[in-house]
Amino acid sequence: MDKGTLYLCATPIGNLEDITLRVIRTLKEVDYIVAEDTRHTLKLLNHLDISKPLISYHKYSNEQKEEKILSLLEEGNNIALVSDAGMPGISDPGEELVKIAHKRNIHVTVLPGATAGLSALVLSGLPTSRFVFEGFLPRDKKIRKEILNQLKGEERTIIIYEAPHHLLGTLKDLHEVLGNRRLAVVRELTKIYEEVLHFTLEESIEYYSKNPPKGEFVLVIEGGKEEKEDNWFNHISITDHILVYMDKGLSKKEAIKKVAADRDLPKSQVYKHSIHIPGKNKD
Predict the structure, then answer these.
(1) Where on the phi/psi map is residue 230: left (φ > 0), alpha (ψ -120 to 50), or beta?
(2) Which residue stretches of 54-158 are H helix?
(3) pLDDT computed for residue 59 by the predictor
(4) Using an 8 Å Cβ cutoff, are 30 and 131 in contact?
(5) How far apart are alpha carbons 123 and 127 in whole angstroms?
(6) Residue 92: how many CB atoms within 10 A of its CB?
(7) Domains of the chain from N-terminus onward
(8) Within 10 Å of residue 168's Cβ, how many Cβ atoms?
(9) Which of 14, 46, 111, 147 is the most exposed place for a label (fewest CB within 10 A)?
(10) Separation in Å, CA 278 to CA 172, 187, 237, 243, 281
(11) Quick one: the chain helix, strand, coil %, rounded to 5?
């Protein structure tokens, strides 16, 4: 008997319209759907009017559950693997299932679609040509510190996932090890309250200390190359940077333009940090 195929199906990360026609067709045609959380996946299937046998597979699943799925594939069943959101295998347990399927000569194919990390990267305004993906940092303090120390000399843009209840602690850890780098904090991608905020790490800590985080976050952090140049303005906030130029006699408009050029930021983003600054505005 021919073996079945394991289909890696990307699902929406928020907006239910972000699913491909190919994924919808495949979910209708396969024999089983393997899901990280069957209750979550059932909502998507009901939305698509699809009814299929569901098998749960998550980080706490034992070897017997894994073997059941692989045996079904070896018996000729076609199976779709989905995560709760985005691409299966990225920061979810599907990675292990794919690895074993390849070892057992089971055909695996991918159906591309939404991925939070790449979506946040292209939305961030930070360099996209070279980047590293770290997913969720380990909760173990020792292992986390080791990984952050490895990232200290990283010159590529860094992508990190974080949950709201851990966000502030992670920002503090990043600031302690990486220094006061620039970052984009991307929240609730593709949803109604999608938001992209640009800070230094120091500014982000101050902001989220006063504004409790809500939603799921992707942190897109600049690489360390510019930090090595040790420009004087890397060590102060955008607001203070504007004030330095205004103290030298520039108007607020002129100061904003200079700061935007120094930091390679859009003028509109710098302007947001100047709204409360009075005086010397010759606009």
Answers:
(1) left
(2) 63-74, 94-103, 116-124, 141-151
(3) 75
(4) no
(5) 10
(6) 21
(7) 5-114 (3.40.1010.10), 117-228 (3.30.950.10), 232-272 (no CATH)
(8) 17
(9) 46
(10) 31, 31, 17, 10, 7
(11) 45, 20, 40
Low-confidence spans in the chain with pLDDT less than 50 = 226-228, 281-283
CB 225 within 8 A of CB 177: no
The rounded distance, in Å, linking the Cα atoms of 131 and 21 is 29
Give the span between the Cα atoms of 133 and 86, in whole angstroms.
15
Cβ count within 10 A of residue 187: 19
The amino acid occupying position 184 is: A
**pLDDT tens, position by position, 44-59:** 999 999 999 999 998 7
Q: Any alpha helices (H) in the chain, and if so which ranges?
A: 21-29, 38-48, 63-74, 94-103, 116-124, 141-151, 164-178, 201-210, 225-228, 238-247, 252-263, 267-272
